Amino acid sequence: MNELAKTIDIYLDAWVEPDEDGRADLIRQAWKPDGRLVDPPLTGEGHARISQMAAALQSNFPGHAFRRVSGIDEHHGQFRFAWELVAPDGTVAMAGLDVGEVAEDGRLVKIAGFIGPLPALAGAPPKAGVDAI
C-alpha cells in the first residue's frame, strides 16, 4: 500500500473513531493543521472542526464504518476515490466519491466529498460506469 492510500485509510478511520483523543490522533496523522473538509451537509477547517464533523456523523450513524471501494486515482497532488458507509449489519447506508489535494509531506490539504451517484446527463442515456461511483 502506498503512502497516500495509508493516509486516506487513516482519514476514513478517523470519521468513525468514537474516542475523541484517538480521533484527534488520527486526524493529526492524516491532515495538515489548516486542512479543509467540504461535504454536502457540513464544512470544516482545522483539526478541531474536522473532529466535530466526525462526531456529528457518528451521532447520526452509530456503529457504522467507512470502507474505500476503489483504488486511488492520483496526479499532481490531486486525488479521488470512492467510499461506502456501512451499517453494523453490512448494509450500505450511503456511498460517494471524495476528491482532494495532498501536501508534499503526504498529509491532506483539502477534501471535497460527494454523496450518491453522479447525475445523469440531461437528454442522454447514462454511460457505462458513471453510476458505479
Q: What is the gist of this entry?
A:
It contains three helices and seven strands; from the N terminus they run ααββαβββββ. The protein has helices at residues 3-16, 20-30, 47-60; strands at 31-38, 43-45, 65-68, 73-75, 78-86, 92-102, 108-115.
Q: Would you spell out the secondary-structure blueprint of this structure?
A:
Layout: H1 3-16, H2 20-30, E1 31-38, E2 43-45, H3 47-60, E3 65-68, E4 73-75, E5 78-86, E6 92-102, E7 108-115
Parallel strand pairs: 1-7
Antiparallel strand pairs: 1-2, 3-5, 4-5, 5-6, 6-7
Number of helices: 3
Principal-axes geometry comes out as globular
Share of helix among residues? 25-40%
Q: Got a strand count?
A: 7
- Per CATH, the architecture is Roll
Major sheet: size, sense and barrel closure?
Answer: 7 strands, mixed
Bin the strand percentage. Answer: 25-35%
Q: Supply the helix-strand structural class.
A: alpha+beta
Contiguous runs where pLDDT drops below 50 for at least 5 residues: none
Q: Using only CA atoms, what is the Rg?
A: 15 Å
CATH class: Alpha Beta
Mean pLDDT: 93
CATH topology: Nuclear Transport Factor 2, Chain: A
Q: How many distinct domains? A: 1
